[in-house]
Design brief:
The chain is mostly helical. It is 70% helix and 0% strand.
């Protein structure tokens, strides 16, 4: 995966082919992924190097990258296009890299971002100042699969439903069962009282 994500020529071709809307999404996905992975900042890495520390020194040896090794450039570009447009796929791919490789890929992507057809920094800043975010535009922040949508619906339903857990449901059923039993007991008691009252009336009638 490292070889694919560090293929400068194919990355340039893929980035150049994205539309402006797609480029905004790709930029968002890249930033989100590296935030999730907690990749060290350039400033921290510079200080580490200055004090004789290297990320690679802490990493175990890993096998060579053979995935898609014999694929054509067309296949690789199609794979990269799909990956950069889906933040979960990009996150999964980046997670396969060592930390030092993640740093290298991040720096490379930052350099190649000039090939993305992005709006000017001035326009992006003005959009942000006026609250015109990617989420508001519908470019980012959408559930990426049906399972995510179902989870969101279940969460929303849970927030509006007092019975938020299995224990709550059991407790409510127990209360309901108790109310039913109590109602049945009251009915039985009422029926017994009626029978008892009827018997008294009959004895009074007989004594006359």
């Amino acid at each position: 995966m490292y070889r694919i994500l560090s293929d400068t020529d194919n990355l340039k071709q893929v980035f150049s082919a994205f539309s402006t809307t797609e480029a905004l999404l790709v930029k968002h996905n890249i930033q989100w992924v590296f935030q999730q992975l907690n990749v060290p900042s350039p400033a921290l890495l510079a200080q580490m190097r200055a004090e004789g520390l290297s990320l690679s020194a802490f990493e175990p040896a890993h096998n060579s990258d053979t995935e898609l090794q014999y694929s054509s450039d067309t296949v690789l570009r199609a794979h990269l296009t799909t990956m950069f447009l889906a933040e979960k796929q990009l996150h999964a791919a980046m997670s396969m890299l060592t930390l030092s490789q993640q740093v290298e890929v991040r720096d490379l992507l930052n350099l190649l971002s000039e090939h993305l057809r992005l709006p000017s920094d001035t326009l992006l800043q003005r959009m942000a100042d006026e609250g015109l975010t990617l989420e508001k535009l519908g470019v980012a922040g959408k559930p990426l699969d049906k399972l995510a949508q179902i989870r969101e619906k279940l969460k929303a339903a849970g927030d509006n439903n007092p019975a938020k857990s299995v224990e709550d449901v059991k407790r409510r059923l127990a209360i309901l069962h108790g109310d039913v039993a109590k109602a049945e007991q009251n009915e039985t008691s009422a029926a017994g009282n009626i029978i008892h009252l009827t018997a008294k009336q009959e004895r009074l009638s007989g004594s006359r």
